[in-house]
Specification:
A hairpin with a 4-residue loop joins strand 4 (about 110-115) and strand 5. The two termini are about 20 Å apart. Strands 6-7-8-3-9-10 form a six-stranded mixed β-sheet, sandwiched between helices. Helices cover about 30% and strands about 20% of the residues. By secondary structure, the protein is an alpha/beta fold. Residues about 5-25 and about 35-50 have low confidence and may be disordered. Helix 3 (about 150-160) crosses helix 4, helix 4 crosses helix 6 and helix 6 (about 200-215) runs parallel beside helix 7. It has a single domain (about 50-295), classed as 3-Layer(aba) Sandwich (Rossmann fold).
Length: about 300
């Protein structure tokens, strides 16, 4: 079994110093650049302790008899972006969907362990936790944009109405705020009653992000959110994800290691259902502690 390197307590972002070079016998053939742009201008992120939003303890998951996730342990930092990377079939999306209990829609699935959501310390995968409550607290954006066949306005307002909001002025205010947060307001403010299906692919994905943000989730999950988008639309979504840390905790699955380096604060590398290594993104991509991590990010497999 691969031994994972990861924190198990509240995450503290290390001082903004350069990572130590890897040992001479493990010099990486290819490094992934970690842009400083995702840090705040005064580098407060690099020196401010970060609270845990969720802690994963000894999490296992089965699809029937298939043991898909094996003894996962990590901390998801509050109002930070955590990326999950690894080859196809390694369990990234399976892990992501444990947070909002999407697996409960399939027969024969089973959880063991805990995902403790803070600050009220509730176990998201407990039998006492209703899946609908988990999904109300944790939003999700899928691989392909999936707007409803409704107007732009009604797409974003849908979750508010589902939760019982009826006052139109309050709905309007919340919809505008969500569209602004998703960097879509200026492009849609004069066409809110048009069909959402008339938007471009990138606009549709940002609309789905606005739809997820409008109900003020505690965690927002992204499952390969740019894999179906062109480079320009991808850049806009990445920029948006980088700014969302001001509002919400983000957990993102991506096959694109450059994307993980660009948008995330922390990175977890998974392989065959196990967590191999977890740490600060700059450390993972410049000085990985596990050989399996180094082999993956240098392109030796995956």
């Amino acid at each position: 079994m691969l031994e994972a390197s990861h924190p198990t307590a509240a995450v503290t972002i290390p001082p903004g110093t350069d990572a130590a070079p890897p040992p001479e016998n493990r010099v990486l053939k290819k490094r992934i650049a970690v842009p400083l742009a995702r840090r705040s201008p005064d580098d407060k992120q690099a020196s401010t302790p970060t609270q845990a939003k969720a802690t994963v303890h000894n999490l296992d998951f089965w699809y029937g008899k298939k043991h898909a996730l094996k003894n996962l342990n990590l901390t998801v930092a509050e109002r930070r972006v955590t990326a999950l990377i690894g080859p196809s079939g390694c369990g990234k999306s399976t892990f992501l969907r444990c947070f909002n209990r999407m697996h409960d829609l399939q027969i024969g699935t089973r959880y063991q362990g805990r995902i403790m959501l803070q600050p009220d310390n509730v176990n998201l995968v407990s039998r006492d936790m209703q899946p609908i409550e988990a999904r109300m607290r944790i939003g999700m954006v899928f691989q392909r944009p999936n707007p409803f066949p409704k107007s732009i306005f009604d797409n974003v307002a849908y979750g508010l109405r589902l939760r019982g909001m009826r006052k139109h002025s309050e709905i309007e205010e919340s919809v505008e705020h969500a569209l602004r947060s998703a960097a879509l307001w200026e492009e849609t403010k004069d066409r809110l009653q048009e069909s959402a299906l008339a938007l471009s692919g990138g606009q549709m994905q940002r609309l789905c992000i606005a739809r997820g943000l409008v109900t003020k989730p505690e965690i927002l999950l992204f499952d390969e959110p740019t894999s179906a988008l062109d480079p320009l639309a991808t850049a806009k979504v990445e920029e948006l994800i980088s700014t969302l840390r001001d509002e919400v905790t983000v957990l993102i699955v991506t096959h694109n290691m450059q994307q993980a380096a660009r948008v995330s604060d922390y990175t977890a590398f998974m392989f065959l259902g196990e967590l191999v290594e977890f740490g600060d993104t700059s450390q993972i991509f410049t000085n990985p502690q596990q050989k399996a991590t180094e082999d993956y990010i240098t392109g030796r497999y995956g």
